[in-house]
Design brief:
Elements (H helix, E strand, L loop, with lengths): L5 H12 L2 H17 L2 E4 L10 H11 L6 E6 L11 E5 L2 H10 L14
Antiparallel strand pairs: 1-3, 2-3
Length: about 120
């Protein structure tokens, strides 16, 4: 058994806890979670060869009376004949995402948009 002073024992455990790699990993984890909270996925949008996804997403959002700034927009998954791939788009803030998601149920009542969610 080895006896150490409290400050000696504490300095070793604090140094290990505050290691630069651990701090970087923790910051990266939090940053990744924040990035993902700004994503929205729309299912059911028709797919064509030469499509402008930002315009299509903008039309859907206009139906629910929202006009956010879309940072990024892409289809998710592998293209298969007869299947509609989901569309993922990123907004500037997670607050706007929450606002859009709360209004998304309005699409069910609009003609031509009942299969989009």
């Amino acid at each position: 058994t080895e006896l150490k002073s409290y400050s000696a024992a504490l300095s070793k455990t604090c140094a290990a806890a505050l290691a630069p790699k651990k701090i970087c990993a923790a910051v990266k984890t939090v940053s990744d979670k924040e990035d993902r909270t700004r994503n929205v996925i729309i299912y059911g949008l028709d797919e064509c060869n030469e499509e402008n996804l930002e315009d299509e997403v903008g039309k859907v959002l206009a139906i629910i009376e929202e006009k956010p700034v879309i940072k990024d927009c892409c289809r998710v998954g592998i293209r298969k004949p007869g299947k509609k791939r989901p569309v993922k788009f990123t907004l500037r803030s997670s607050d706007m995402v929450n606002q859009i998601l709360s209004k998304a149920k309005l699409l069910r009542t609009k003609e031509g948009y009942s299969n989009i969610y």
